[in-house]
Amino acid sequence: MRISDDRYSRDRLRLDIAIQFIRHEARTHTIRQWTGLTDDRIRKLYRSYLHGGGLHVTRHRGKSPQQAGYFLRTVRLRQEAAVLASIGCLLGVLHYSRGTPARLSPGIGRAASVCQAYDTYCALVAEPAITMEHAVLLLVTLSHGVELALQGCRECGALLVADPLALHPARCVVCSPEGPRASKRLTCNH
Questions:
Q1: Mean pLDDT to the nearest integer, 84-106
Q2: Rg (CA), the chain
Q3: Angle between helices 108-124 and 132-144 (to 10 degrees)
Q4: Is pTM beyond 0.70 here?
Q5: Half-sphere exposure (Cβ direction) of 177: Cα atoms closer than 13 Å
């Protein structure tokens, strides 16, 4: 393989991933951060391939979500965050070395895994509540392990996304005092 072939493949991968991010309604800043493309190139991709193609994709403006507490607000968000985190672990987006999370930093190779994790999450969860922007926030925040961390339920060991500084050990919806009535809202597409 010649150097030019390798460069073409890398550039093609950047464009393909940028289009995936655009289809998932990610903001320009997020796409630039993960693909390395310029703002102008991202806008041109949107206009050339998605805007006129009959596919309606909303372009969000403003800052990307930055509050990790979003995932702990409701039972549904906690459940869906756990599903997405589980997929991230299975696909190698999130990985741990001696119990410490390895930092997930933006890059084209990892962007493909993030897209795959989000696509899998969307396929498994009916009416997903977590957007691509929030998925990126969740995975990066979990990889830092400061604001949010992966923990096991103190009763059954189920994987949970929890506040690592909480006073009480985390419990899943089924084991919590409220019981499983809230967990029925999360259903699979299959």
A1: 85
A2: 18
A3: 120
A4: yes
A5: 0
